[in-house]
Design goal:
The complex is a heterotetramer, with two copies of chain A (about 350 residues) and two copies of chain C (about 325 residues). With about 350 residues, chain A is of the alpha/beta class. Chain A contains eleven helices and five strands; from the N terminus they run ααβαααβαβαβαβααα. The longest helix of chain A has 26 residues. At the C-D interface, α4, α5 and α9 of C face α4, α5 and α9 of D. The structure holds thiamine diphosphate (2 copies) and magnesium ion (2 copies).
Chain lengths: ~350, ~350, ~325, ~325
Amino acid sequence: MMAKQSLNKAACVRVLERMLVIRRFEEALVEMSGQKLFKSHYHLYIGQEATAATVVESLRSDDKLVTTHRNHGHVLARGADPGAAFAEILGRATGLNGGRGGTLHMSAPELGFLATSSVVGGCIGLALGGAFAQQRRGRGGVSVAFFGDGSLEEGISFESMNIAALWKLPAVFLCENNGAGATGSAKGGFPSSLIAAPRLAGIAESLAIASSQIDGRDVDAVHRAVSRGVASCRAGRGPVFIECITERWEGSKPMWPELSTGITDVALAWESERMPKKYRDWHVHQDPILLHIRKLLRKKLISRAAVLQLDRKVIARNAAARQFAIASPMPRGKTALDSVYA
Amino acid sequence: MMAKQSLNKAACVRVLERMLVIRRFEEALVEMSGQKLFKSHYHLYIGQEATAATVVESLRSDDKLVTTHRNHGHVLARGADPGAAFAEILGRATGLNGGRGGTLHMSAPELGFLATSSVVGGCIGLALGGAFAQQRRGRGGVSVAFFGDGSLEEGISFESMNIAALWKLPAVFLCENNGAGATGSAKGGFPSSLIAAPRLAGIAESLAIASSQIDGRDVDAVHRAVSRGVASCRAGRGPVFIECITERWEGSKPMWPELSTGITDVALAWESERMPKKYRDWHVHQDPILLHIRKLLRKKLISRAAVLQLDRKVIARNAAARQFAIASPMPRGKTALDSVYA
Amino acid sequence: MKPMRKITYSQAFVEGLDYCMRKLPNFSLLGNEVMGLGPQRVHLETIWRNYPERVNFPPTSEAAFSALAAGAAMSGEHVFCHLGAASFSFLSMTSIANEAATAHYASGGKIKVPVVFHMLHGLRIGGGTQHSMSPQSMYWNVPGLQIVLPSCARDAKGLVATACLSDNPTVMFTHDLLIGMEGEVPEADYEIPFGKADIKRRGKDVTLVATSYMVQVSLAAAEILAAEGIDVEVLDPRTLVPFDKKALIKSVAKTGRLVVADESHLSCGVTAEIAAIVAEEAFHHLKAPILRVARPDVPTPFSRPLEDFVTPTADKIAAAVRRVMG
Amino acid sequence: MKPMRKITYSQAFVEGLDYCMRKLPNFSLLGNEVMGLGPQRVHLETIWRNYPERVNFPPTSEAAFSALAAGAAMSGEHVFCHLGAASFSFLSMTSIANEAATAHYASGGKIKVPVVFHMLHGLRIGGGTQHSMSPQSMYWNVPGLQIVLPSCARDAKGLVATACLSDNPTVMFTHDLLIGMEGEVPEADYEIPFGKADIKRRGKDVTLVATSYMVQVSLAAAEILAAEGIDVEVLDPRTLVPFDKKALIKSVAKTGRLVVADESHLSCGVTAEIAAIVAEEAFHHLKAPILRVARPDVPTPFSRPLEDFVTPTADKIAAAVRRVMG
Ligand SMILES: Cc1ncc(C[n+]2csc(CCOP(=O)(O)OP(=O)(O)O)c2C)c(N)n1
Ligand SMILES: Cc1ncc(C[n+]2csc(CCOP(=O)(O)OP(=O)(O)O)c2C)c(N)n1
Ligand SMILES: [Mg+2]
Ligand SMILES: [Mg+2]
């Protein structure tokens, strides 16, 4: 596949739809957590949707992907069924992984995902293995590791980049740096990353890995960097490191996620006078969905009506998916002993 | 202590003496291994003596040091008793560590050494702890990690440098890069390092750590870099990374050390016509002892007779140390159960 | 006498830490969220506030900051190092098992390593495969480490103090479900000596050895069984290293029957060792097989009914006790 | 019939690997010095020569290359990943125990992880604290892993083949002192099914369960004891996961006496689990306490007399057998 530097109209709309799928899914999730439909700790992808939704545009069906504790967006962007995803988080038998993984370990192997690790840095080592397998297969497949800025604090990340560079493995190290604006743990929130590197990409560069650093909310920027990087990997030129920078979304700053910016109103993309003051910065500068809609409207790639219609379609499907999950049975207890070994 | 950029005459001779102590010790060791006086795998410091012998010139008695599987040179340079060191390697009760450590774990805590790890990279994490303790104590002490180029392949090295940089710990990361000229394991020898970094120092620099890269056989170069680096640490300016480059000594290329360049003849420093052709490169360009002697003679800081006399003194003491060790008793078997806990 | 105040495990734990802060100027704390992510986490903030210079939040670099803790300990500091979920300790297994555990011995007794590695363990509802582990037996298999598992607020306070003041590397496990549990805790500072088992309930029919949260579950089981006329002795070793073999054998000599409950996986778990000690050294006292209640040998599933199925409960323990009663 | 050829464990092991190379085009090898640093290391060179594309020497980055092996396995490759001394596996404990062991289960059975983690274990003379470890019980405590310990050349060939062809993550231990040991090994390719114990010597008085090199030492002990009129049955489980409980209980039912020998440290070691299984499930067959011969709970000292003191030997095993004979 050639690296296409810009997305055509259909692709732009596909990206928007994916972003909405993720957003509506996670908004519902916060509600479901409040309803105690599941009890575990969980992490939202809100604010980072532009990255996952765009990255998959550059991927082939035989490419490999690995994600983290913050996996919902990646798995959905790649096309996993939201009903099965909800069911997984609710621990239902119909879940993507039969309810055994839960929110921290959702994986869709049928879509190319390897195991989802919620051990920080773990996904990077596994993705290295995916890249190794792709190289051995010799058909130009790549392996994408999605990980956060904090993951670079783990030595395995450095080790993995070194091996990928030495062996010219087709690994895409996709760092989603949501560290900006994160509160520290001492202040009751999740810490931002603690890394002395003035530039994260500098670490990869010290290993002679081609790197780029882009605005992770900007669909076009993500696409340019990723399509170029993936093409380079496919051509056998070794790994690439791409840092997608976003500001940490308000609702992900505290220990437990909160829907602090409210349920997304896509019309705010053009009805700016209705924006609540408190989250003006989010609605104007951060929310990748609103940003993308505004750009599409400006470029006349979509109409307001079409946006609203697309959103309604996504919301309806999301509601059905949620219903499916809630109506799904729990697995029987004793099946816990099954499938320890293949 | 102020950073002195060059060593005075007495210091130059001290450095030479330390180098000779290490060299004579290890030459004897190869013989003792051949005599089956000990049976384990071991690693020699020959060729790298200029580094250890010089580094200690910049250290205070309250500084901390950590070394690796290749520790003999560091421990002896810091002033450990060669008799106790021989005894340790022979597993005697009089050994530095009662015979429990052996060649891979020689440590002299009374001289500031922490535990000696033969886990590659392990020493770096421990040295970080030494630096943390020094910072808490607030008396300007530093902590030196001696490690090889291969250690940078371990993620803990990267993690440790990051923490040291973040917290401005007084850690001296002293990388002894003996990778040049190392044969690969596929060829029956120890591998050289496998790292994609074009410059090892580039890794430290990506974390904004002040770095330098020097000829590890050159006493003056080592002293300039180390005295400056140590002074910077003492002043609270955070860690430094110093890469001392040496060519891997012939005798350390195969799996088991061999005394391939023969017993050192210090007179070769001036009787170059007697140099055996086969190891001309070693004797002319590599052997840090001959290099140092030549420089001292050139600068008239020592006479040929004094060199010979110093060497004879070292040899005699070394022979006595060896005798002491061989005459020392083995520990009694059941004491193996002692000292598991303090 | 006025009744003793009740505080949570978390509060008691923090009091133990505070005592060490006051007692040892060279004591410091590494790591955040020592008491998990729940509401009890706030108690640590007293320590952060009172000893800001002695609390450090490291990057997510378990191998290095555990080695840092060990290396600082070798240099004369006392360090309490928190690792988060026990599964994260696998990232620093080398720093704990290869370095901290061996340094004193390999140095010929010259180096001391006063460091505590603290981690959260156990089935905690929804922890799934990577946030529910109980690797206490893996660490018990590493000589050189002391192993501590408090089972209640009172023990937490005294055991954390002893651990932090000790000159030896210690691995300490807090069960997630204990953190918010209240219990009577003396106001004064105290240390609980290692290697002294505590009989949490006296009984004559069956010895029930339990660790950590399983002590609470075993006490509940004992109540169920008492109603049936079975008198259970609940023995809490409190520390696995050193292990109070004498108390164990004395109890088994009295009851002739043994059930062991611990959340590590069955195979080579804590229950295996305790069973093996008795099968070796108190065999002639035994009137019945030794039964073990442990987590079955499967990774921990997320889904609630699946997780419940693998969780050792009072009912399962009671059933095992009934079986050894024949 | 002509006598069977004798080759070393190392040669047999390499034949097993070679068979897998021929059988599976997607099988490759990661890591050097699979057979240690001694003279037997050369046999691997056949593999390097014949399958240069399928042999990779990674940097000293155990965590990452173990994760690489696991991730490649999840992507359809079969990988044999060598870690060197077992203590180095502690650097990749997270990749083995948190990732490889849980992926199949957490994915709901969708992901397979056909990877073998191979390491050298055991007291090897002069290995000291960091090159002598035997952590087989630590891995046995991690569900999701298969655990394999060959005890002779013949088993090595068949077990390594089964391990590499298996769809499950497997941890395989080679004892340093077995590598150069010769034994009869069939020329043809073969696989040895997991979970089938092998009776290495039939006997009727005492069941002696042993693993890895301890099988050889136990056979020597059995000879000593035979001369005294004690008829020992030496049972080699060969794989700990899956474990052949049936064969164990059958043997104990016959002899009524059990001694277990394994080089992991005593506490929560392999000997503990085997003793506990019997104390739980075959108690009524037992005529005597179950004795364990293991490495005592001390780090491994370098000095020869100290190391000898902690090494399980034929004499120590024979003494334990005499004790259970009363
Ligand atoms: C090995 C390990 N240590 C600690 C944690 C606890 N933890 C969960 S999320 C997180 C922060 C990760 O930051 P980053 O990689 O930037 O991801 P983000 O959550 O910001 O997307 C930490 C430390 C963990 N999951 N794994
Ligand atoms: C964690 C670990 N992995 C592998 C080894 C085996 N090993 C011993 S020495 C060595 C090479 C180390 O290279 P370097 O750090 O450059 O030190 P050098 O021997 O060259 O001085 C290796 C890989 C080890 N000791 N520890
Ligand atoms: Mg982040
Ligand atoms: Mg080197």
